[in-house]
Amino acid sequence: MRDFRAFFKGKSVTVVGLGLLGKRLGDIAFLAQCGAKVLVTDLKSARELTPSIKKLQKYNKPARGRAGIQYVLGKHRMQDFENCDFVLKGQGVALDSPYILHAREKGIPIEMDESLFVKLAPQVKIIGVTGTRGKSTTTVLIYEILKRAGMRVHLGGNIRGTAALSLLKEVKKGDTVVLELSSWQLQGFNEAKISPNISVFTNLMSDHWNYYKNNRKQYFIDKSYIYKFQKKDDILILGPSMKGKIKNVKSKIINANIKNVPKLVNLPGQHNLENIACAVEVAKILKIPDNIIKKTVENFKALQGRLKLVRNIRGVKIYNDTNSTTPEATTAALNSFKHKIVLIMGGMDKGPEVNDLNKILSNKTKKIFLTPGSGSEKIENTKANIVKVANLKDAINKSIKVAKKGDIILFSPGFASFNMFNNEYDRGDKFMKLVKKLK
Asked: Where are the beta strands (DSSP E) in 43-136?
């Protein structure tokens, strides 16, 4: 273990990507608190990033023990990638970015927050969860089971509102940390040549094709870093759909089985049974008593934005599934219900095919309210009852008018949100505000 404060103090750090999700804010504030000289650069303008900059206001100016934060916004400058001790790369910043490549040429280390946390943390057990769908549900359920069992456990990674580096102030030797890890975050694990002690690979579907340029192999390679550097005593848990797909690993492979899932489950859908099965296997490895596993699973509710029941208006149930940003995710959501539903969907295309989704739309939906976007233009199933709407508010108002008692309104976009919203969380927040106003 390193003294993390001494590690960061006085270092010049270029942080690439401030963003609007809020995840980076905790890391940037932490770096400033530790006395690092922080320069934040983002291609978005200062006006676009005003909410994030305001939240860092306390650290923006120099103070005792702090150098303050500098901003280079609306552009990147090559000089900021050569005059620093390391670059902290944000999610979605391509490894072949000319600025990242320039830093490498100058011998500047490239770090990412989760992997840097693992390198600097004391002797803790790391549980990492990846996959295309179900990462958050599986991660949080593992965390809740371990917490109920009385373990000292921490939650982090690709979870909204969490920051990895600031966890260094909280963790102690012997603790357990559960991290949700996206394919992008796992690039940092490859840089560091490390993998979690217990790794969970829930599933692999089509996603982020705009980033990966339709290269499914590269997407899988980034995901594979969750187990690539595991040692003999480490464990890799595979979701049911991943059985037999990963071989020649040093660690022990355990295949999750939905037969081990307690009978009473509050989460709809086959995919959620598979997520729960993965969490149950982690708990068994850690020797958590069956009664604690059962009780936690039975009381576990859907996470916000992930097929979560949010209102029941005159017998019409409304579900928020804003985190369904791919056609496959919306397909899984539709297959979670037995009867036809009123579907709100649409958004920006990320590249995946829509053939499987189009095949089931007419059988699984009573009516579809389709919001604008390049992805929406790919929904061409003429047998489905599709109504194009101007925006999300229009879709909600029209869907509640056509829905009858016993119906389900499902908001499962199937595409990205950037054409109309900052991100899927912003989209989900606006959906919730609109739904709360319904009478």
From this structure: 69-73, 86-89, 110-111, 125-130
Among the listed residues 214, 207, 163, the one whose alpha carbon sits nearest the alpha carbon of residue 182? 207
Cβ-in-10-Å burial (0-12, 13-18, 19+) of 339 comes to exposed
DSSP string over 133-201: SSHHHHHHHHHHHHHHTT--EEEEESSTT--SGGGGGT--TT-EEEEE--HHHHHHHHHHT---SEEEE
Q: Say yes or no: 256 and 314 in one domain.
A: no
How far apart (Å, rounded) are the C-alpha atoms in residues 402 and 369?
11
User: Residues 107, 119: one domain?
Assistant: no
Give CA–CA dist 103/78, Å, rounded.
8
Query: Can you tell me the distance from the alpha carbon of 72 to that of 17, in angstroms, rounded to the nearest whole number?
Result: 10
If one counts the domains in the chain, the total is: 3
**Domain boundary at 83, 111, 139, which?**
111
* Binding residue numbers for ATP: 131-137
Domain assignment present for 390: yes
207-221, 232-246, 270-284 — which is least confidently predicted? 207-221
Residue with tokens 């054409």: 419
The token duo for 392 is 């999300």
Do 295 and 330 fall within a single domain?
A: no
Residue 4 lies in a domain: no
| Distance from C-alpha of 158 to C-alpha of 142, rounded to nearest angstrom | 15
Contact 215, 119 (CB under 8 A): no
- Are 35 and 132 in the same domain? no
> Residues within the annotated binding site?
131-137
Domain containing residue 144: 114-299
130 and 159 in a single domain? The answer is: yes
Tell me the pTM.
Answer: 0.89
Identify whether 267 is part of a domain: yes
For residue 15 the two structure tokens come to 């942080």
d(CA 31, CA 88): 11
Report pLDDT for 3.
77
pLDDT digits (tens, 9 = 90+) for 101-117: 999 999 999 999 999 99
Instruction: Determine the pLDDT at residue 228.
Output: 97
The CATH number for 15's domain is 3.40.50.720
